[in-house]
């Protein structure tokens, strides 16, 4: 059985897509970001909790503050990318649940009254949404450079608050010269899938 998605789209989203390490200086527009969000917001999360929050780092001053929290190998590319997004998990996502999950509004208090439970659920579901976001960036014809080489606590203190946990930083733009490292190997189907 073959996939329904057009092979060119498969290449764009997965087979030919890789983490970008250089970008052109072409700006990423608000319209592009709105289109990305309007696509990826439909990706499923538990109880439709959608805990991902996106902080766009656009000003030179904010970029300078961010770069100092990146690992040395990620600083130059973060400084040069047209746009940078900090992806975080909102640990107070449950406040939106009555509106986001109207079929079962009591989920807010029944399942997510305790902060440690919320933090675990927010981290897992926001990470899932981060994957959707990266694929959405690719669907817009842009390249993403997701990174976790950073000072998480420093970024939380600098850009977020105690209710948000940073997950990653994503550079976004059109790929520049020598943007791609060679494709790394992947595990084979039979090495990943177990039938019981």
Question: Can you describe what's shown?
Answer:
The chain is an alpha+beta fold and 196 residues long. It has 9 helices and 4 strands, in the order ααβααβαααβαβα. The protein has a 4-stranded antiparallel sheet with strand order 1-2-4-3. The relative contact order is 0.22.
The number of distinct β-strands equals 4
Helix and strand sequence: HHEHHEHHHEHEH
Structural class: alpha+beta
> In terms of per-residue confidence, which ranges show pLDDT below 50 for 5 or more consecutive residues?
none
Mean pLDDT: 96
List the total number of helices: 9
How are strands sequenced across the largest beta sheet?
1-2-4-3
- What is the first-to-last residue Cα distance? 22 Å
Helix share bin: 40-55%
Please state the overall shape, judged from the principal axes of the Cα atoms: globular
Strand coverage percent: 5-15%
From the alpha-carbon coordinates, what is the Rg to the nearest angstrom? 18 Å
Characterize the main sheet.
4 strands, antiparallel
């Amino acid at each position: 059985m073959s996939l329904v998605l057009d092979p060119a789209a498969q290449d764009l989203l997965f087979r030919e897509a890789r983490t970008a390490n250089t970008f052109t200086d072409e700006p990423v527009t608000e319209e592009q970001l709105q289109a990305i969000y309007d696509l990826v917001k439909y990706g499923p999360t538990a109880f439709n909790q959608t805990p991902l929050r996106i902080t766009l780092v656009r000003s030179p001053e904010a970029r300078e503050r961010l770069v100092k929290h990146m690992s040395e190998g990620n600083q130059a590319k973060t400084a040069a990318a047209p746009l940078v997004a900090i992806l975080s998990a909102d640990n107070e996502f449950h406040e939106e649940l009555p509106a986001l999950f109207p079929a079962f509004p009591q989920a807010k208090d029944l399942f997510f009254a305790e902060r440690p439970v919320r933090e675990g659920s927010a981290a897992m579901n926001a990470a899932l949404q981060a994957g959707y976001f990266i694929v959405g960036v690719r669907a817009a014809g842009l390249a993403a450079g997701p990174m976790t080489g950073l000072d998480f606590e420093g970024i939380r203190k600098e850009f977020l608050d105690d209710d948000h946990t940073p997950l990653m930083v994503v550079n976004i733009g059109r790929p520049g010269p020598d943007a791609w490292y060679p494709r790394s190997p992947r595990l084979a189907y039979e090495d990943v899938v177990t039938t019981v």
